[in-house]
Amino acid sequence: MKFSIYNSLTNQQESFTPIEKGVVKMYSCGPTVYDFAHIGNFRSFLFGDLMRRSLELGGFAVQHVMNITDVGHMVEGEDDKMLAAASRVKENKKSGRVPEGAIQDPNDPYQIADFYTNAFLEDSRKLAYKVAYDYPASVPKATDYIPGMIEMIEVLIQRGHAYVSSDGVVYFSVESFPEYGSLSGNTMDKLQSGAGGRVSDTNQSMKKHPADFLLWKPDQKHIMKWESPWGVGYPGWHIECSVMAKAVLGQSRIDIHTGGEDLIFPHHECEIAQSCGCSGESHFANYWVHARFLFVEGEKMSKSKGNFFTARDVLEGKVTGKPVHPAVLRFELIKSHYRSNMNFTVKGLTDSAATITKLIDFRAMLESKTGGKSAEVDLSHPVLGDFSNALADDLNIAGALGVMHNWLKTDHRDAELSLAILKKMNSVLSIAPINEGTDGVEVAADGGQHGDGDAQAEDWRQQMVDARKNKDFATSDQMRDKLVDAGYDVQIGKTDVTIKKKLA
Ligand code: AMP
Ligand code: ZN
Question: Could you tell me which CATH class the domain 344-442 is placed in?
Answer without folding.
Answer: mainly alpha
